[in-house]
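User: Study the chain.
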Amino acid sequence: MNPNYADGWKESASAWLDEMGGQGDYARKFILDAPMLERVAGVGARRALDVGCGEGRICRLLRGLGI
């Protein structure tokens, strides 16, 4: 990744977390999270691959499931 982009992403992700908090916006917290987490809960997954689609919120939720 271009170093200039990396610095911009860190600032952007920090701003997102400041604005939304660790739980994300309404749609994520109350609509999307439950069905997404249901799909992985109980299937025996122990690892996940983050392809860089956010600031790490879903990874934190998965960690709460032991993944």
